[in-house]
Model the fold of this input.
Amino acid sequence: GVASLEGNSLVAGATLGVEAVNAAGGVIGHPIELIVVDDKSDAATSTQVSQQLIRQNDVDYVLGTIAGDTSVAAGSVAAEAGVPCSTVVNGTVEFCSPHFWPFGASERMMVEDLVPLMIEEYGPRVGLVGNDYIFPRTYHAVASEIIAEHGGEVVAEEYSPLGTADWQPVIGKLANTDPDWILTAVVGGDAVSFMNQADQFGLLTDRGITGTTSQQEFYGALGPILEGRMTALQYSDQTPGADNEAFVAAYREAYGDNGSISAIAATAYEAVRFIAAAVNAADSYDADAISEQMSMIRLDGLLGNLGFREDNHYVSSDMVLVQIDEGGVYSTVEVLDPIDDATARNCS
Done:
């Protein structure tokens, strides 16, 4: 479906994670078996395939999916069956349970340090644009709070459905408000369409832009449009370190040198390693025993120091401030301190 790019990255990263864990002895002395199903970015299908995984395949853990509504669907099925479940995409899933552990960065992690830097660099007038579903609206709601706290002003807020081909009406509305910079929450293939059209119609001329469209996986399609711009990432395949270099080498060997490695692939890889550590620490496949360990495990690796809060199940990990240079070089400007997102939500 519309999230096939991200879905393929999830499977690629999880596959490498399973291979790494199995090479180290598996979990409780047994290899992990990875079973992959496609929910086609559709919530009803996500419900059906999640039920299939649990009832027919008897899985011990559900990992996925991509969009917010499909994540809620999969998480709800898993919670009802008493099976632990995790997502790996950025953004808060409007769902929580004692056995739900999302590995993606929360909205606050993504924008808390980035917004003040953009206001300082470009100015206080901010335009917001995104796809019309839960994540972009939540992302912008958190960003709006931080914009106001730092003396900024939201001058436009526009949304368009997933799969939008013609972004010209949205671009025109944004241009009419003359923002100093734009914060995007446009995802998947829509991110490429929006950015190319925004550049074509002059929206990006002498104006800052950052957000989801600055992710590394989009550089191959956007190239010079992203160069010279700044963003904050949970993961960059160019961050120095032996763990990352080994992961990148394994990824390239398995899938070829086809451009940047997405944060979703890296997060899925780390999620598998983290879950395996929790199962080994629990010495059990029991959901309660595994979830008890999920908030106690700490994993140093591709995402820095990775762990979960016990109360709201938000993940904590390093964020990286990067400058996008010519040729797709995502230069690390600064490794930011982990943000402990204490936003209250009921996971009991």
Q: What stands out?
A: DSSP finds twelve helices and twelve strands in the chain. The mean pLDDT is 94. The longest strand covers residues 153-160.
